[in-house]
From TrEMBL:
Protein name per Swiss-Prot or TrEMBL: Methylglutaconyl-CoA hydratase
Transmembrane portions of the chain: none
Keywords annotated in UniProt: Lyase
Organism: Streptomyces venezuelae (strain ATCC 10712 / CBS 650.69 / DSM 40230 / JCM 4526 / NBRC 13096 / PD 04745)
One Pfam family of this chain: ECH_1
Length: 240
């Protein structure tokens, strides 16, 4: 089974994360397949824009703890979304956790159905949202970012819109796609360069530090306990 389902309609290519059995966890294989699909979209002059969606009830549960990508591969994927010379529209109708929020942060526009919900759950397994800060912190309202980085609480679409993670409800999707179809390829490419410039500055400045920080955290005893507890469906040792 392909891990990224590809469909096309009138210049819009939809890439749907397609591993519902793992809640679309970001495995090394899924990251590679998504990167390859994005590369193909970037080179195809018939593609005006890309929709990044999902099958099943979860957009992404975050990193696959059993078969994770390297931090560098995930950074490369995030940067690829940001640098793609076509607009990328995230479309979420289910749950988004941890690294999945980083993917949404890399998208140019994010639309969410009313049943979508979100959580930055890294602190609950002994790590932190290090690498995904590259795409999230330049876009999120600082007080909201602090709350959700520190608590791991679940939040819904209205709060996601207010904090800058989500652009609008998914009822806006048809109109946005028609607007992108009406825009010139050159205009879209150059407009995207303007709105992503500051995010790319963050990659240049912080990517290596955040990759090293993430690797150190994941190798720590606390993280091993947190991930083991998660996989065993029990509370970690530090739970009060």
């Amino acid at each position: 089974m392909t891990l990224v389902a590809v469909t096309e309609e009138r210049g819009i290519t939809t890439l749907a994360l397609n591993s519902p059995a793992t809640r679309n966890a970001l495995s090394a294989a899924l990251v590679t397949e998504l990167s390859d699909a994005l590369t193909a979209c970037g080179k195809d002059p018939a593609v005006r824009a890309v929709v990044l969606g999902h099958t099943g009830g979860t957009f992404s549960a975050g990193a696959d703890l059993k078969a994770p990508p390297s931090p560098y591969a995930f950074v490369d994927l995030l940067r690829q979304v940001v640098e793609l010379p076509k607009p990328v529209v995230g479309h979420v109708t289910g749950h988004v956790r941890a690294g999945g929020l980083g993917l949404l942060g890399a998208c140019d526009i994010v639309l969410a159905g009313e049943t979508a919900d979100f959580a930055l759950t890294e602190v609950r397994i002994g790590v932190a949202p290090a690498v995904i800060s590259l795409t999230l912190l330049p876009k999120l309202e600082p007080r909201a970012a602090a709350r959700h980085y520190l608590t791991g609480e679940r939040f819904g679409v209205p709060e996601a819109v207010a904090m800058g993670l989500v652009t609008d409800g998914d009822q806006a999707l048809p109109g946005i796609l028609d607007a992108l179809r009406a825009a010139s390829p050159q205009g879209l490419r150059e407009a995207k360069r303007l709105v992503t410039a500051r995010v790319l500055e963050t990659f240049e400045r912080d990517a290596e530090d955040l990759v090293q920080r993430s690797a150190t955290l994941f190798a720590s005893p606390e993280a091993r306990e947190g991930m083991t507890a998660f996989l065993e469906r029990r509370d970690p040792a530090w739970r009060l």
